[in-house]
Every structure is written in C-alpha cells, then in structure tokens.
Amino acid sequence: MTATLPRRAWVEQIMGLPVSVHLRGPGAGDPPAEAAVAAVFADLRRDDAAFSPYLDGSDLSRWERGEAPPTPELEAVIALCDEARERTGGWFDPRGLPDPRTGRPRYDPSGLVKGWAVQRAAAHLPDGLGWCVNAGGDVLVHAPDGQPPWRIGVEDPDAPEDRVAHVVTRGTGAVATSGRTHRGDHIVDPYTGSPATGVRAVTVTGPDLLWADVYATAAAARGPWAMDWLEELDGYEALMVTASGLVRVTEGWPAG
Known about the structure:
Elements: E1 7-14, E2 17-24, H1 31-51, H2 59-64, H3 72-87, E3 97-98, E4 105-106, H4 110-121, E5 130-135, E6 138-142, E7 150-155, E8 164-170, E9 173-179, E10 199-206, H5 209-222, H6 227-231, E11 237-242, E12 247-249
Antiparallel strand pairs: 1-2, 2-5, 3-4, 5-6, 6-9, 7-8, 9-10, 10-11, 11-12
C-alpha cells in the first residue's frame, strides 16, 4: 500500500548528524507540507544553537561559564535532566562529563536534548500525513488511520553500513539507539568517569522519543546488567548487543 502513496523526503545536516524527514500520503509534496518540514528543520537548528555544549556562544555554554542566567527553555531541559537522573538511578547524568576538547568537566544534556528537540519539532508535521523523522538513528514516526505502520531497521553494530539486524514495526512512536557503533566510547559511566564499554548498542522502543533516548543512553552506560531494569520500564521494550556480541531482548520485544 505504501508504494501507491505519494512520498517526499528531505535531509539536512543538523546537530552534527543527518536529520531526515519522510512524508507519505496525499499532499506530501504540496507547499503546506514543505513549509511544515522547513519549520521542523528550523526548530532543530535553533535548538542546536541553544543547547550545544560544543558551541561557545550557545545558551548552554554561556550559562555554564556564568555569563548569563538560564533561559526558560534551558531551565526546562535542566529539570528534565534531573528527572532523567532520578528515573535511571543516576545512570543518565549530564553533570561533570569531560569535554573532549579541554578535558575539563562540563554539563552535557545531549543524550536528552536530541529526543526532546525532535519530538517538539515534529509537532509541526500534519496529523493527516504519515511521517518519519530520523535524527542520526533516533526515530519518531506517525501513521494516520488508513496507513500501514512504518518499518524501522535496527542496524547490526558489527556492520552498520551493510546489514540490518532487526526490523521494528511502529504505527506511532519512537525507536532510539545508543552505543559505540558510530561515535566510539563517548558514553561515560557516571559512577567511575570512565568510558562505558560493556555493550555495543542498545535500542529502546516506546511512545516517547525523549525517554526512549534517555533509557537507551542510561542502559548503555550501565552495561549488560541493565536488562533487568529495562524489563521493568512500563511501555518500553529494548534490544541489547553486549560487548561480546550476545543479543538480549526484553520480553515484549519487538514492540508493534
């Protein structure tokens, strides 16, 4: 059925990664749809400029240096990070992470901001169209009544450019992946300050991209023993590939 639906796709480089928006359904290529996609990209560029820990002029960097009070949006992100730290038992913690440029501690909410920003920006997209937003592997989809669900590939961490290890079917909801495949040992164990190397990748599905992304990041930091915790998350399912290559899933995987 999807082959007969009009489709359009757009890709831009934002937040240091490719962000794609796919629309399907009557009107997918019309000016109102194009305007909605442009608004999505504009919001993401604005949030990148505001919250990037790598930009000296971002709201986050200026606040961290004590040059300006937090903006209302930054206050909201900090509050969400505090909630994320509580929900994950401290395994998601943006405080005190080392800056790879200087080695000095910094506040880095990136593991939450991407999902938060994509979810907010996607509000511009029309409910009457099917849409998929993919921000470097963190995916948010919507299929209106009468359209089939989206099929989302989960890459094989041993061959991310060549193989899809699993396919997740989602009508409306999120799929988020964290791990070492593309960015190396960038996830830090907040209790030791050392790189978290116990897993290659963790994929989490659920209704909310912000929390799917947070849970995937926290599980990657925690390591293989995070599976018991993931199993207890209401409404979320997970797939983990450990450092040894063992594949583990929660009882409800794959989520529909």
